[in-house]
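Sequence, please.
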């Protein structure tokens, strides 16, 4: 069976087939281990309209457009300028929204390495501040590269935050952190959880809306 290039079939020990469409338009089909090619083709055919609608939805989501020399940091565009004098450091000017460095931060791999370091320092500091202020203690904090989540909290109160959130505005970062800290008290997304989240983060709906609108740009 020949699948489209952006389709992936994953066989698992499950009872029913399940589809997932990602923001980049790729499609994952999780099927029982004994599923035949004919059964897979049938599922794809039956769900073709649904898949197309989800792909169209993601295509229409707004994107943050950056110029060739721009980086996204804390919800703002920063212009990068090469500077030979800054050999071992990166100078960020938040007033002029400029970044100067000898290293080429326009190279995606170098840029991601630098942003991950910035994210780790910023998020660790902010998690500790909010945890103390909100009286919501946690166990351990991890900075991850999750593909589909901005954050996660385990039953052991270990929190994971996606490093890419460092590109979002500070109120969005605070929402993601507060959301996971609230999970240290209530794991499931119940009415009580929403009430708790609202009490600690009154603008959480605006932050969630921002991520829904621009999250695929981060």
């Amino acid at each position: 069976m020949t699948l489209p290039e952006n389709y992936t079939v994953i066989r698992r020990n499950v009872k029913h087939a399940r589809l997932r469409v990602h923001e980049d338009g790729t499609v994952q089909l999780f099927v029982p281990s004994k599923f035949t090619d004919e059964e897979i083709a049938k599922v794809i055919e039956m769900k073709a309209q649904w898949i197309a609608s989800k792909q169209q939805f993601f295509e229409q989501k707004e994107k943050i457009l950056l110029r060739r020399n721009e980086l996204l940091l804390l919800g703002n565009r920063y212009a990068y300028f090469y500077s030979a004098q800054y050999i071992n450091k990166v100078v960020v000017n938040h007033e002029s929204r400029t970044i100067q460095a000898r290293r080429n931060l326009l190279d995606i791999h170098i840029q991601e390495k630098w942003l991950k370091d910035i994210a780790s320092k910023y998020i660790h500091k902010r998690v500790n501040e909010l945890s103390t202020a909100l009286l919501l203690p946690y166990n351990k904090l991890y900075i991850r590269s999750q593909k589909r989540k901005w954050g996660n909290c385990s039953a052991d109160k270990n929190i994971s935050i996606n490093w890419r959130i460092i590109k979002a505005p500070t109120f969005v970062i605070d929402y993601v952190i507060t959301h996971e800290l609230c999970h240290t008290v209530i794991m499931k997304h119940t009415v009580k959880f929403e009430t708790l989240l609202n009490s600690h983060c009154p603008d959480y709906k605006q932050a969630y809306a921002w991520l829904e609108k621009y999250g695929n740009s981060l």
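The chain has six helices and ten strands.
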